[in-house]
Write a structure and sequence with these properties.
heterodimer, A: 134 residues, alpha/beta, Rossmann fold, 5 helices, 46% helix, 18% strand, B: 552 residues, TIM Barrel, 2 domains, five-stranded parallel beta sheet, 51% helix, 7% strand, globular, Cbl-dep_enz_cat (chain B)
Amino acid sequence: MEQKIRVLIAKPGLDGHDRGALVIAQALRDHGMEVIYTGLRQSAPQIAQAAIQEDVDVVGLSSLSGGHKALFPKVVEELKNRGADDIPVIGGGVIPEEDISFLEEKGIHKIFTSGTKTTELAQYIQGLIRGEQV
Amino acid sequence: MGNDFNTAQKQWQEKMKKTQVRFPERKETFVNKSDLEIDPMYLPQHEALHDEYMEKLGFPGQYPYTRGIQPGMYRSRFWTMRQYAGFGSAKETNQRFRYLLDQGQTGLSVAFDLPTQIGYDSDDPMAEGEVGKVGVAIDSLEDMEILLDLIPLDKVSTSMTINAPASVLLCMYIAVAEKQGVPKENITGTIQNDILKEYIARGTYIYPPKPSMRLITNIFEYCAEDVPKFNTISISGYHIREAGSTAVQEVAFTLANGMAYVDAAIESGLKVDQFAPRLAFFFNAHNNFFEEAAKFRAARRIWAHLMKEKYGAENEKSLRLRFHTQTGGSTLTAQQPDNNIVRVALQALSAVMGGTQSLHTNSRDEALALPTEESARIALRTQQIIAHESGVADTVDPLAGSYYVEEMTDRIEQEVWSYLDRIEEMGGAVQAVEDGYMQREIHQAAYEAQKKIESKDDIIVGLNEFQIDEELNADLLKVDEQLEKDQVKQVQQAREKRNQAVVDDILNQLREAAKNPETNVMPYILESVKAYATVGEICNILRDEFGEYTGA
């Protein structure tokens, strides 16, 4: 049997809006993935540490506070510092279109904005992980 | 029984007269465009219906307040138009406030940034990337002085969305008012101060529930004596709804939280009528128009019942559920954002039909960023159009007697009571929060809602139907990246300017006060802010003594 995809869903920074993060965690579970949710107010080092400890295939970041430009790249950096830059990072939340290319340049694989279907997200992750493992 | 009706009607007339001395009706006679006169309210014609009317509705301004808390509602005064604003620095926000007041807004509402809301100074490592983003950064009294510069605090009422550090920001507000020559007995406004919904839905908690409840009762007690016109709490369903709850859950969990605060205050030795008149509520208005209007009416009836029957309140003011409404942020779409103006108008209308005391209308671009000045103005104009052009404010509770609305009001009430019973069986709201019960219920509802959107059982215009190819978000408000650096400098300079010995001394006194659960910490916090101790310094003292909450 194929191993389950493991996902870490994390809320970097001080933002307390976790409706989206929780809904996505639940939806990915319904798509057969194992999902670990960090809870609120995680620092970049904590998130990177959790990703490694939990041996996840992908990290999903959620932010609605406008802090994404500072916070998302830091997680990528912290993963790199720990030699774990093979774990792809994706993000979502309230993120203006014009910030997306900046975040992609900083190593975030993809940004999903408001209105994305959870099935679309699940398919993307499946493609991303299978693609990289082959 | 017909007597009851007639007596109540007479009482209503007398009350109307009395109220009009202070708040005369907006017009001598109200007429519509056909020149037909509009009565202050309309009643069931048949005597056979009077008993049921008295039991379920009552006259406006009378128990159980289903039709509204004042006898004439908006015939005298419109609701307070209160737009939540705040971003970046105190100076910028002060400019936005003065702009909004110039545009006819009638009250202020302050949004604080996340570090302020969680009790971190702008130069704290935890604050990095978040300074000034979702609201204004306030570190020391100096920032508060700038924020409120040239705003007359004896005339303007101010609502502050602040919870865990509510005591600190209220003390800063008192201190600025005193500097303006306005005594604290005269200031008006609201602090949100509702920590339970932070654990449930909003996330800006600091301390564990028990010491948090103590801080809240300390504020109740202090304000009952010293700041009698300030609303000491705004018990909020707004964020519970935004987190995904249903309308019924919004009311049920909010009122359950309200009961927990009442219980805590009574336990600390206060009498219910000492603090209950200063309790305020804050609800959401979503898209299902009649459900929302019915929800507000049901909430008022349940609260009146609770306060009278369960808590034995005698002061009429304790029985009245006064509330602020904000339209539903989570109903807005990033796609075709101008459509949001229409959603907001419908939601705002439901709040007015439901008898709200004040209203914030969201801006069309809030699914994307903080609102631009233009978007904020359209949002305010939406309220002004409802107030001045639609005529809906010319008669009290116009939906009363609608078979549909009355039935929905009753059904919502029943569902809320069964939640309240369940929560009581669990040991009350504090226990239910600690067990994660409400969080799970809300999350389940949020997930179901998402599935309905993805399966198109629910159509969201522009999102899952009627889509267009569009260029996304052209003109958004951007918070200057330089701001965080400036604010860090500002707080560091503020610390250098002050008399450190005085600060150390008062912070030590605060620590001792915090250690003793019988002591009210408010006077110590007030002296601390006057000495220019920062939000972070004060909250860190309390963190040391109270500990930090880490989740259910």
